[in-house]
Amino acid sequence: IASVVFIHGLDGHRIKSCIAKNKKMWLIDFLPNEMPNARIMTYGYDGYTHGKDLFSNQTLSVHARDLLTKLTSRRTGNEKRQIIFIANNVGGIILKSVRLFQFRAS
Fold first, then answer.
1. Taking each helix axis from N to C terminus, what angle separates 60-74 and 90-105, rounded to the nearest 10 degrees?
2. For residue 63, with 0-12 CB atoms within 10 Å meaning exposed, 13-18 middle and 19 or more buried, which class applies?
3. Looking at residues 47-51, what average pLDDT do you find?
4. How far is it, in rounded angstroms, from Cα 103 to Cα 95?
5. Apex CA 18: angle with CA 14 and CA 24, to 5°?
6. pLDDT tens digits, residue range 80-105?
7. CB distance 36 to 73 below 8 Å
8. pTM tops 0.90, yes or no
9. Under a CB-based contact definition with an 8 Å cutoff, are residues 88 and 7 in contact?
């Protein structure tokens, strides 16, 4: 049994980034068929780069700490469950930052 965590990229959205032209969201519509016992989660963060009202002023460290905090709270009682990350673009850099926080903490 595993957890699958999707992290979108810049200007992405935790749900909308996974929707295909046929209006199917692969995380919901297809992945559960392939991994029926997996817990599927998405992580959304403010990654907008266009428009003065929407532009994110948060750092990668802020996003990484937020992801780590949210994952830790969701995994209480399930710490041994493997995690499969799917990260796109800056989502991968956020994930790498989480790993750096974990490394420094140990």
1. 70
2. buried
3. 70
4. 13
5. 130
6. 889 999 999 889 999 999 888 777 77
7. no
8. no
9. yes
Nearest CA to 7 among 99, 102, 89? Answer: 89
Looking up tokens 């996974």 gives: 18
pLDDT at 31 over 80: yes
Checking 56-63 for CB contacts under 8 A at 24+ apart, the result is: 60/90, 60/93, 60/94, 60/97, 61/97, 63/94, 63/97
Q: Is the dihedral of CA 85, 66, 26, 77 positive or negative?
A: positive
DSSP string, the chain: -EEEEEE--TT--TTGGGB-TTS-BHHHHTHHHH-TT-EEEEE------SSTTT-----HHHHHHHHHHHHHHHTTT-TTSEEEEEE-THHHHHHHHHHHHHHHH-
> Which pair of tokens denotes residue 103?
């490394």
